[in-house]
Amino acid sequence: MAFQAAYVVDGARSPFLKARNVPGPFSASDLAVQAGRALLLRQPFAPDKLDEVILGCASPSPDEVNIGRVAALRMGCGAKVPAWTVMRNCASGMQAIDSAIANIQSGRAQLIMAGGTEALSRAPLLYNKAMVLWFAGMMQARSLGEKIAAFARLKPVAAFSPVIGIMKGLTDSMVGLTMGQTAENLAWKFGISRVQMDEFAEQSHRRVLAGRESGHYGEIVPLVDAKGNVYAEDDGVRADSSVQGLAKLKPFFDKKYGCITPGNSSQITDGAAWLILASAAAVDKWKLQPLGKISDSQWSGLDPAQMGLGPVHAATAILQRQGFALADIDAWEINEAFAAQVLACLAAWESDGYCREELGLSAALGALPRDRLNVDGGAIALGHPVGASGARIVLHLLHVLRAKQAKRGIASICIGGGLGGAMLVETL
Predict the structure, then answer these.
(1) Domain of residue 419, CATH code
(2) Residues with Cβ < 8 Å from 106, sequence gap 6 or more?
(3) Same domain assignment for residues 372 and 306
(4) Could you list the active site residues?
(5) Residues 346 and 197 in one domain
(6) What is the CA radius of gyration of the chain?
(7) Are strands 111-119 and 52-56 parallel, antiparallel or unpaired?
(8) 231: nearest Cα among 272, 172, 178
Protein backbone atom coordinates (compact mmCIF):
# COMPACT_ATOMS: atom_id res chain seq x y z
CA MET A 1 0.00 0.00 0.00
CA ALA A 2 1.31 3.43 -0.93
CA PHE A 3 2.26 5.78 1.89
CA GLN A 4 -0.59 8.21 2.59
CA ALA A 5 0.63 11.62 3.62
CA ALA A 6 -0.41 13.05 6.97
CA TYR A 7 -0.63 16.81 7.45
CA VAL A 8 1.33 18.66 10.10
CA VAL A 9 -1.08 21.31 11.32
CA ASP A 10 1.11 23.06 13.86
CA GLY A 11 3.86 22.43 16.36
CA ALA A 12 5.72 23.88 19.30
CA ARG A 13 8.59 23.06 21.56
CA SER A 14 10.01 24.19 24.85
CA PRO A 15 13.40 25.85 25.13
CA PHE A 16 16.08 23.21 25.54
CA LEU A 17 17.71 23.64 28.95
CA LYS A 18 21.23 22.39 29.58
CA ALA A 19 21.78 20.06 32.50
CA ARG A 20 24.13 21.61 35.05
CA ASN A 21 24.91 18.63 37.30
CA VAL A 22 21.74 19.22 39.33
CA PRO A 23 18.11 18.27 38.64
CA GLY A 24 16.55 20.83 36.32
CA PRO A 25 13.51 22.96 37.24
CA PHE A 26 11.10 20.86 35.17
CA SER A 27 10.17 17.21 35.05
CA ALA A 28 9.63 15.55 31.69
CA SER A 29 5.86 15.89 32.04
CA ASP A 30 6.20 19.54 33.10
CA LEU A 31 8.07 20.25 29.87
CA ALA A 32 5.52 18.41 27.75
CA VAL A 33 2.55 20.05 29.46
CA GLN A 34 3.79 23.62 29.19
CA ALA A 35 4.77 23.29 25.53
CA GLY A 36 1.59 21.38 24.76
CA ARG A 37 -0.78 23.78 26.47
CA ALA A 38 0.63 26.72 24.53
CA LEU A 39 0.18 24.78 21.30
CA LEU A 40 -3.38 23.73 22.08
CA LEU A 41 -4.46 27.22 23.10
CA ARG A 42 -3.99 28.54 19.58
CA GLN A 43 -5.97 25.80 17.85
CA PRO A 44 -9.57 26.19 16.61
CA PHE A 45 -10.56 22.98 18.38
CA ALA A 46 -10.73 22.14 22.08
CA PRO A 47 -8.16 19.69 23.53
CA ASP A 48 -10.84 17.06 24.04
CA LYS A 49 -11.47 16.98 20.29
CA LEU A 50 -8.17 15.20 19.75
CA ASP A 51 -8.54 11.56 18.87
CA GLU A 52 -5.28 10.58 20.52
CA VAL A 53 -2.13 11.84 22.24
CA ILE A 54 1.18 9.99 21.70
CA LEU A 55 4.34 10.99 23.54
CA GLY A 56 7.87 9.64 23.19
CA CYS A 57 10.14 9.45 26.24
CA ALA A 58 13.19 7.30 26.84
CA SER A 59 13.39 7.56 30.62
CA PRO A 60 10.34 8.95 32.41
CA SER A 61 10.56 9.20 36.17
CA PRO A 62 8.86 6.53 38.32
CA ASP A 63 5.97 8.89 39.10
CA GLU A 64 5.34 9.52 35.39
CA VAL A 65 4.51 6.00 34.25
CA ASN A 66 2.76 6.19 30.86
CA ILE A 67 3.88 9.78 30.68
CA GLY A 68 1.81 10.32 27.54
CA ARG A 69 -1.37 9.81 29.51
CA VAL A 70 -0.10 11.94 32.39
CA ALA A 71 0.68 14.83 30.03
CA ALA A 72 -2.62 14.54 28.15
CA LEU A 73 -4.68 14.74 31.33
CA ARG A 74 -2.63 17.66 32.63
CA MET A 75 -3.08 19.49 29.32
CA GLY A 76 -6.83 19.28 29.68
CA CYS A 77 -7.52 16.72 26.98
CA GLY A 78 -10.02 14.99 29.22
CA ALA A 79 -10.45 11.43 30.37
CA LYS A 80 -11.95 10.19 27.09
CA VAL A 81 -8.95 11.02 24.88
CA PRO A 82 -6.65 7.98 24.82
CA ALA A 83 -2.98 8.70 25.36
CA TRP A 84 0.09 6.51 25.40
CA THR A 85 3.86 6.46 25.43
CA VAL A 86 6.43 5.16 22.96
CA MET A 87 10.13 4.52 23.39
CA ARG A 88 12.69 4.13 20.58
CA ASN A 89 15.70 5.67 22.36
CA CYS A 90 16.85 8.82 20.52
CA ALA A 91 13.98 8.58 18.04
CA SER A 92 11.15 8.30 20.56
CA GLY A 93 9.66 11.61 19.43
CA MET A 94 9.89 10.60 15.77
CA GLN A 95 8.33 7.25 16.60
CA ALA A 96 5.40 9.06 18.21
CA ILE A 97 4.88 10.95 14.95
CA ASP A 98 5.13 7.76 12.90
CA SER A 99 2.64 6.00 15.15
CA ALA A 100 0.26 8.93 14.71
CA ILE A 101 0.62 8.72 10.93
CA ALA A 102 -0.14 4.99 10.99
CA ASN A 103 -3.33 5.53 12.99
CA ILE A 104 -4.44 8.31 10.66
CA GLN A 105 -3.75 6.13 7.63
CA SER A 106 -5.73 3.25 9.11
CA GLY A 107 -8.73 5.52 9.69
CA ARG A 108 -8.69 4.97 13.44
CA ALA A 109 -7.90 8.64 14.12
CA GLN A 110 -8.18 11.98 12.35
CA LEU A 111 -6.50 14.43 14.72
CA ILE A 112 -3.50 13.47 16.87
CA MET A 113 -1.01 15.31 19.03
CA ALA A 114 2.37 13.58 18.95
CA GLY A 115 5.83 14.47 20.19
CA GLY A 116 8.52 13.75 22.72
CA THR A 117 9.93 14.89 26.02
CA GLU A 118 12.91 14.23 28.25
CA ALA A 119 14.40 15.59 31.47
CA LEU A 120 17.89 14.13 31.32
CA SER A 121 19.02 16.31 34.23
CA ARG A 122 16.73 14.19 36.39
CA ALA A 123 18.19 10.86 35.34
CA PRO A 124 18.33 8.79 38.52
CA LEU A 125 21.23 7.58 40.60
CA LEU A 126 20.71 3.87 41.24
CA TYR A 127 21.87 1.55 43.96
CA ASN A 128 24.56 -0.86 42.82
CA LYS A 129 24.11 -4.60 43.20
CA ALA A 130 26.00 -4.74 46.50
CA MET A 131 23.65 -2.19 48.06
CA VAL A 132 20.57 -3.90 46.69
CA LEU A 133 21.68 -7.16 48.29
CA TRP A 134 22.42 -5.35 51.55
CA PHE A 135 18.92 -3.84 51.61
CA ALA A 136 17.48 -7.28 50.93
CA GLY A 137 19.38 -8.63 53.89
CA MET A 138 18.12 -5.80 56.09
CA MET A 139 14.55 -6.59 55.14
CA GLN A 140 15.09 -10.18 56.27
CA ALA A 141 16.63 -9.20 59.61
CA ARG A 142 14.17 -9.73 62.42
CA SER A 143 15.89 -9.11 65.74
CA LEU A 144 17.82 -6.03 66.84
CA GLY A 145 20.99 -8.14 66.87
CA GLU A 146 20.47 -9.26 63.27
CA LYS A 147 19.96 -5.64 62.20
CA ILE A 148 23.11 -4.50 64.01
CA ALA A 149 25.02 -7.31 62.33
CA ALA A 150 23.65 -6.24 58.95
CA PHE A 151 24.79 -2.66 59.56
CA ALA A 152 28.23 -3.94 60.52
CA ARG A 153 28.48 -5.65 57.12
CA LEU A 154 27.69 -2.42 55.23
CA LYS A 155 30.71 -1.27 53.22
CA PRO A 156 30.94 2.50 52.63
CA VAL A 157 32.38 1.92 49.15
CA ALA A 158 29.18 0.14 48.13
CA ALA A 159 26.95 2.75 49.73
CA PHE A 160 28.64 5.67 48.02
CA SER A 161 29.17 4.16 44.58
CA PRO A 162 25.82 4.63 42.86
CA VAL A 163 25.07 3.61 39.29
CA ILE A 164 24.67 6.70 37.13
CA GLY A 165 21.43 6.13 35.27
CA ILE A 166 22.24 8.27 32.25
CA MET A 167 25.50 6.40 31.62
CA LYS A 168 23.66 3.08 31.72
CA GLY A 169 21.10 4.47 29.30
CA LEU A 170 23.82 5.65 26.91
CA THR A 171 25.59 2.30 26.87
CA ASP A 172 24.64 -0.33 24.32
CA SER A 173 23.86 -3.55 26.15
CA MET A 174 24.75 -5.78 23.19
CA VAL A 175 28.20 -4.44 22.31
CA GLY A 176 29.06 -2.86 25.66
CA LEU A 177 29.99 0.50 24.13
CA THR A 178 28.81 3.94 25.11
CA MET A 179 27.31 6.04 22.34
CA GLY A 180 30.47 8.16 22.41
CA GLN A 181 32.62 5.09 21.82
CA THR A 182 30.53 4.18 18.78
CA ALA A 183 31.23 7.71 17.49
CA GLU A 184 34.94 7.10 18.03
CA ASN A 185 34.56 3.99 15.85
CA LEU A 186 33.15 6.11 13.03
CA ALA A 187 35.86 8.75 13.35
CA TRP A 188 38.49 6.03 12.95
CA LYS A 189 36.61 4.28 10.13
CA PHE A 190 36.32 7.41 7.96
CA GLY A 191 39.45 9.23 9.07
CA ILE A 192 37.64 12.17 10.65
CA SER A 193 40.06 14.44 12.49
CA ARG A 194 39.64 16.27 15.76
CA VAL A 195 39.91 19.57 13.89
CA GLN A 196 37.04 18.61 11.58
CA MET A 197 34.87 17.70 14.57
CA ASP A 198 35.60 20.94 16.37
CA GLU A 199 34.99 22.99 13.24
CA PHE A 200 31.61 21.32 12.81
CA ALA A 201 30.76 21.95 16.48
CA GLU A 202 31.71 25.61 16.25
CA GLN A 203 29.56 25.92 13.12
CA SER A 204 26.58 24.46 14.99
CA HIS A 205 26.75 27.18 17.65
CA ARG A 206 27.29 29.89 15.04
CA ARG A 207 24.33 28.75 12.96
CA VAL A 208 22.01 28.59 15.97
CA LEU A 209 22.95 32.14 16.93
CA ALA A 210 22.37 33.34 13.37
CA GLY A 211 19.07 31.50 13.18
CA ARG A 212 17.96 32.98 16.48
CA GLU A 213 18.85 36.49 15.32
CA SER A 214 16.91 35.93 12.09
CA GLY A 215 13.81 34.74 13.94
CA HIS A 216 14.07 31.15 12.75
CA TYR A 217 13.11 29.62 16.09
CA GLY A 218 9.51 30.70 16.23
CA GLU A 219 8.42 27.22 17.31
CA ILE A 220 9.76 27.85 20.84
CA VAL A 221 7.27 28.71 23.60
CA PRO A 222 8.60 29.96 26.96
CA LEU A 223 8.62 27.94 30.16
CA VAL A 224 7.76 29.31 33.60
CA ASP A 225 8.88 27.53 36.75
CA ALA A 226 7.19 27.41 40.15
CA LYS A 227 9.07 30.53 41.28
CA GLY A 228 7.97 32.58 38.30
CA ASN A 229 11.29 32.40 36.47
CA VAL A 230 10.89 32.53 32.69
CA TYR A 231 12.97 30.41 30.30
CA ALA A 232 12.56 31.80 26.81
CA GLU A 233 15.53 30.46 24.84
CA ASP A 234 17.75 27.42 24.48
CA ASP A 235 20.47 28.03 27.05
CA GLY A 236 23.26 25.71 25.87
CA VAL A 237 24.25 27.87 22.91
CA ARG A 238 27.64 29.53 23.30
CA ALA A 239 28.36 32.82 21.58
CA ASP A 240 32.03 32.43 22.48
CA SER A 241 32.44 28.99 20.92
CA SER A 242 35.61 28.77 18.82
CA VAL A 243 37.74 26.08 17.29
CA GLN A 244 40.64 27.25 19.47
CA GLY A 245 38.57 26.95 22.63
CA LEU A 246 37.14 23.58 21.65
CA ALA A 247 40.65 22.28 20.99
CA LYS A 248 41.48 22.67 24.68
CA LEU A 249 38.85 20.14 25.79
CA LYS A 250 39.99 16.62 26.61
CA PRO A 251 38.53 13.46 25.03
CA PHE A 252 35.86 11.93 27.24
CA PHE A 253 35.07 8.46 25.90
CA ASP A 254 38.58 7.35 24.91
CA LYS A 255 40.83 9.47 27.06
CA LYS A 256 44.09 8.20 25.58
CA TYR A 257 43.46 7.94 21.84
CA GLY A 258 40.06 9.51 21.27
CA CYS A 259 38.83 12.74 19.70
CA ILE A 260 35.25 12.93 20.99
CA THR A 261 34.92 15.66 23.62
CA PRO A 262 31.98 17.28 25.40
CA GLY A 263 32.47 20.21 23.02
CA ASN A 264 31.92 18.26 19.81
CA SER A 265 29.13 16.12 21.27
CA SER A 266 25.48 16.91 21.89
CA GLN A 267 24.68 18.35 25.30
CA ILE A 268 22.75 16.62 28.08
CA THR A 269 19.54 18.60 27.98
CA ASP A 270 15.89 18.83 29.07
CA GLY A 271 13.17 19.67 26.58
CA ALA A 272 9.91 18.77 24.83
CA ALA A 273 8.46 19.09 21.33
CA TRP A 274 4.96 18.50 19.93
CA LEU A 275 3.31 18.32 16.51
CA ILE A 276 -0.37 18.17 15.66
CA LEU A 277 -1.10 15.80 12.80
CA ALA A 278 -4.33 15.59 10.87
CA SER A 279 -6.02 13.74 8.06
CA ALA A 280 -7.36 15.57 5.02
CA ALA A 281 -10.84 15.23 6.49
CA ALA A 282 -9.77 16.86 9.78
CA VAL A 283 -8.05 19.69 7.88
CA ASP A 284 -11.31 20.40 6.07
CA LYS A 285 -13.50 20.00 9.14
CA TRP A 286 -11.56 22.45 11.28
CA LYS A 287 -10.43 24.71 8.40
CA LEU A 288 -6.80 24.15 9.36
CA GLN A 289 -3.78 25.61 7.58
CA PRO A 290 -1.04 22.94 7.69
CA LEU A 291 2.66 23.71 7.81
CA GLY A 292 3.20 20.82 5.41
CA LYS A 293 2.91 17.07 5.22
CA ILE A 294 4.93 13.96 5.98
CA SER A 295 5.15 12.00 2.76
CA ASP A 296 7.29 9.01 3.72
CA SER A 297 9.11 7.46 6.67
CA GLN A 298 11.66 4.72 7.18
CA TRP A 299 13.27 2.74 10.00
CA SER A 300 16.49 0.83 9.40
CA GLY A 301 18.84 -1.39 11.37
CA LEU A 302 22.63 -1.65 11.34
CA ASP A 303 25.59 -2.73 13.48
CA PRO A 304 25.08 -1.24 16.99
CA ALA A 305 28.82 -0.47 17.14
CA GLN A 306 28.27 1.95 14.23
CA MET A 307 24.85 3.23 15.24
CA GLY A 308 25.69 6.81 14.20
CA LEU A 309 25.31 5.81 10.53
CA GLY A 310 21.61 5.10 11.05
CA PRO A 311 20.58 8.24 9.08
CA VAL A 312 22.45 6.94 6.03
CA HIS A 313 20.49 3.70 6.00
CA ALA A 314 17.07 5.19 6.73
CA ALA A 315 17.32 8.25 4.48
CA THR A 316 18.81 6.28 1.59
CA ALA A 317 15.84 3.94 1.59
CA ILE A 318 13.52 6.95 1.20
CA LEU A 319 15.66 8.44 -1.57
CA GLN A 320 15.63 5.14 -3.46
CA ARG A 321 11.91 4.64 -3.03
CA GLN A 322 11.08 8.18 -4.14
CA GLY A 323 13.65 8.33 -6.95
CA PHE A 324 15.56 11.27 -5.43
CA ALA A 325 19.24 12.09 -5.33
CA LEU A 326 20.81 13.76 -2.30
CA ALA A 327 20.78 17.09 -4.13
CA ASP A 328 17.04 16.79 -4.86
CA ILE A 329 16.36 17.43 -1.17
CA ASP A 330 16.12 21.14 -0.41
CA ALA A 331 16.95 20.91 3.30
CA TRP A 332 18.26 18.26 5.68
CA GLU A 333 18.09 17.86 9.42
CA ILE A 334 20.41 15.18 10.75
CA ASN A 335 20.44 15.08 14.53
CA GLU A 336 23.87 16.02 15.84
CA ALA A 337 24.48 13.36 18.44
CA PHE A 338 28.19 13.84 17.75
CA ALA A 339 30.06 15.91 15.18
CA ALA A 340 31.95 12.77 14.16
CA GLN A 341 28.70 10.91 13.62
CA VAL A 342 27.20 13.51 11.25
CA LEU A 343 30.49 13.84 9.36
CA ALA A 344 30.65 10.05 9.10
CA CYS A 345 27.19 10.00 7.52
CA LEU A 346 28.37 12.46 4.87
CA ALA A 347 31.51 10.39 4.29
CA ALA A 348 29.51 7.16 3.98
CA TRP A 349 27.35 8.60 1.18
CA GLU A 350 30.55 9.61 -0.65
CA SER A 351 32.16 6.18 -0.21
CA ASP A 352 31.85 3.67 -3.06
CA GLY A 353 32.79 0.87 -0.68
CA TYR A 354 30.25 1.70 2.00
CA CYS A 355 27.42 2.31 -0.45
CA ARG A 356 28.10 -0.98 -2.24
CA GLU A 357 28.78 -3.18 0.77
CA GLU A 358 26.29 -1.77 3.29
CA LEU A 359 23.56 -0.16 1.19
CA GLY A 360 23.52 -2.44 -1.82
CA LEU A 361 24.07 0.43 -4.27
CA SER A 362 26.15 0.27 -7.43
CA ALA A 363 28.27 3.28 -6.46
CA ALA A 364 28.54 6.15 -4.00
CA LEU A 365 25.40 8.22 -3.63
CA GLY A 366 27.49 11.38 -3.69
CA ALA A 367 27.96 14.56 -1.68
CA LEU A 368 25.18 16.08 0.38
CA PRO A 369 25.28 19.88 -0.14
CA ARG A 370 26.60 21.20 3.17
CA ASP A 371 24.68 24.47 2.86
CA ARG A 372 21.43 22.48 3.07
CA LEU A 373 22.34 20.57 6.23
CA ASN A 374 21.24 21.81 9.66
CA VAL A 375 21.11 25.37 8.38
CA ASP A 376 20.09 26.70 11.81
CA GLY A 377 22.52 24.53 13.76
CA GLY A 378 21.73 21.42 15.71
CA ALA A 379 22.00 19.36 18.86
CA ILE A 380 25.67 20.13 19.55
CA ALA A 381 24.56 23.69 20.33
CA LEU A 382 20.92 23.11 21.24
CA GLY A 383 21.21 19.87 23.18
CA HIS A 384 19.73 16.42 22.71
CA PRO A 385 16.83 15.64 25.07
CA VAL A 386 16.60 12.08 23.85
CA GLY A 387 12.83 11.66 23.71
CA ALA A 388 12.21 15.07 22.13
CA SER A 389 14.92 15.34 19.46
CA GLY A 390 13.18 13.32 16.75
CA ALA A 391 10.10 15.51 16.98
CA ARG A 392 12.17 18.69 17.10
CA ILE A 393 14.03 18.06 13.87
CA VAL A 394 10.82 17.24 11.97
CA LEU A 395 9.13 20.40 13.23
CA HIS A 396 12.10 22.66 12.60
CA LEU A 397 12.63 21.22 9.14
CA LEU A 398 9.14 22.34 8.15
CA HIS A 399 9.92 25.84 9.38
CA VAL A 400 13.19 25.83 7.40
CA LEU A 401 11.42 24.79 4.21
CA ARG A 402 8.78 27.49 4.61
CA ALA A 403 11.42 30.14 5.33
CA LYS A 404 13.37 29.11 2.22
CA GLN A 405 10.17 28.74 0.17
CA ALA A 406 11.44 25.25 -0.63
CA LYS A 407 9.58 22.04 -1.38
CA ARG A 408 11.00 19.00 0.38
CA GLY A 409 13.30 17.98 3.21
CA ILE A 410 14.47 14.91 5.10
CA ALA A 411 14.80 14.71 8.88
CA SER A 412 16.91 11.81 10.12
CA ILE A 413 18.32 10.56 13.39
CA CYS A 414 20.69 7.90 14.67
CA ILE A 415 19.38 5.65 17.42
CA GLY A 416 21.17 3.77 20.15
CA GLY A 417 21.05 0.03 19.56
CA GLY A 418 21.94 0.27 15.87
CA LEU A 419 18.92 1.93 14.27
CA GLY A 420 18.16 4.88 12.07
CA GLY A 421 14.97 6.81 11.39
CA ALA A 422 14.06 9.27 8.65
CA MET A 423 11.05 11.22 7.43
CA LEU A 424 10.39 13.00 4.15
CA VAL A 425 8.48 16.23 4.72
CA GLU A 426 7.04 18.55 2.11
CA THR A 427 5.47 21.97 2.07
CA LEU A 428 2.09 22.49 0.41
Answers:
(1) 3.40.47.10
(2) none
(3) yes
(4) 90, 384, 414
(5) yes
(6) 22
(7) parallel
(8) 272
What backbone phi and psi angles, to 5 degrees, belong to 54? -130, 125
Residue 64 domain-assigned (yes or no): no
Phi, psi (5° rounding) for residue 121? -65, -20
Counted residue by residue, the chain has a size of 428
Residue 208 sits in the same domain as residue 139: no
User: What stretch of H or E contains 428?
Assistant: none
Cα dist from 333 to 140, 197, 202, 216, whole Å: 55, 18, 17, 14
Domain boundaries, position 309: 179-215+293-426
Cα dihedral 30→35→41→44 (10° resolution): -130
Helix (H) / strand (E) containing 389? helix 386-404
Count the Cβ atoms, other than its own, within 10 Å of residue 210: 13
Residues 156 and 183 in one domain: no
**186 and 146 share one domain:** no
Q: Spell out the per-residue pLDDT of the chain, length 428, in tens.
A: 578 889 999 999 999 999 988 889 999 999 999 999 999 999 999 999 999 999 999 989 888 999 999 999 999 999 999 999 999 999 999 999 999 999 999 999 999 999 999 998 987 666 778 778 877 887 888 888 878 887 777 777 766 777 666 666 667 787 888 888 999 999 999 999 999 999 999 999 999 999 999 999 999 999 999 999 999 999 999 999 999 999 999 998 888 889 999 999 999 999 999 999 999 999 999 999 999 999 999 999 999 999 999 999 999 999 999 999 999 999 999 999 999 999 999 999 999 999 999 999 999 999 999 999 999 999 999 999 999 999 999 999 999 999 999 999 999 999 999 999 999 999 99
- Rounded to the nearest 5 percent, the helix, strand and coil shares of the chain are 45, 20, 35
Q: Are residues 146 and 196 in the same domain?
A: no
Asked, for residue 338, whether it belongs to a domain, the answer is yes
* 324 HSE (CA, 13 A, CB side): 19
How many domains are contained in the chain?
2
Pair 371, 402 in one domain: yes
**Cα separation, 426 vs 409, whole angstroms:** 6
DSSP string, 51-91: SEEEEE-SS--GGGSSHHHHHHHHTT--TTS-EEEE-BTBT
Residues 357 and 411 in one domain: yes
